[in-house]
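Whether sequence alone determines local backbone shape is best considered at the level of individual chains. The sequence in question and its structure tokens are set out directly beneath this paragraph.

***
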Amino acid sequence: MQEAIPEIKESPERPSLETLPPVTLGRQGRHFFFRKRPGKNGLALAFLLPAVIVVTLVTFLPIINAVRMSLYETSYLQRTDFVGRRHYWNYLQEPEGRRNILNSLIYVFGSLTLSIPFGVLLATLLHRKLRFRTLFRTLIVLPWVVSQLVGALLWSWLMNPYYGPINYFIQLWLGPPIDFLSQPTTAMPTLILVNVWRSFPYPMLLTLAALQTIPEELLEAARVDGASAWTRFWRVTLPLIQNTLLITVIMLSLYYFNMVTLPLILTGGGPLGTTEVISLRVYREAFNFYHMGYGSAIAIYILLFNILFSLLYIKILRTEVRY
């Protein structure tokens, strides 16, 4: 006898994603999280409230006060006449203001041009399996750990034209001593080099962390295909760490553009204003000359620059890296 073959019923066809109607959340869908978990949301808001209060008191209120002060002729917190946008226009029209902006661009661009490649080079070397690699990493990070004040005082002593070790060897081998920080032709390059010495560990650490996330299979496949070390870095490694490098450029640009201590201690803005960057000008107008209104107006320009680079930073964070 032949066994009866059971009849197979065809299941109804599943609808594809293209045939499904669009789903709209509406007001109820958007507030689903808040409607269903009132207790947890209240606890979360309670934990966030102290941080919101601190950020408001430390950040937003000073910004509002700076904008208000920039509209008045304020001297040592004594507000006098309303001047409107005069401070903003005067700073852009005066020669010192344009020179401050140019000095800041030279300072930021020169520091980035040297610190980023140097940091990437050291990160690539320290990513390899070397003896005493942990010791080297610790020693290289020391300049970043040292405060700006200590670093500036250290280099002021090293480059002192009378008793500094650097000028001692210059007199011993080359000739008369060189006052690096008091000559218009050497002050800005020297300031940039000191800044690079102090800040290069930051791009090195970020690049080193990014290199450790790259799958070894990609580099091994490129090595099997006959790619040289430079080709592997240029074609495989660099595209995968480009987002990290862009973030590093933005963070260092913000750091350099707002830096006051290093230029103030090393050169004080001199000689002849060749190293007076915009952040140092804000400090001098507000705390040396007590022109609070004028200094606040210049500080608003720095705030606009920070907002622009913060938006670029957020945009880069939203991009995805595909291996």
Remarks:
- The two ends are 60 Å apart (CA to CA).
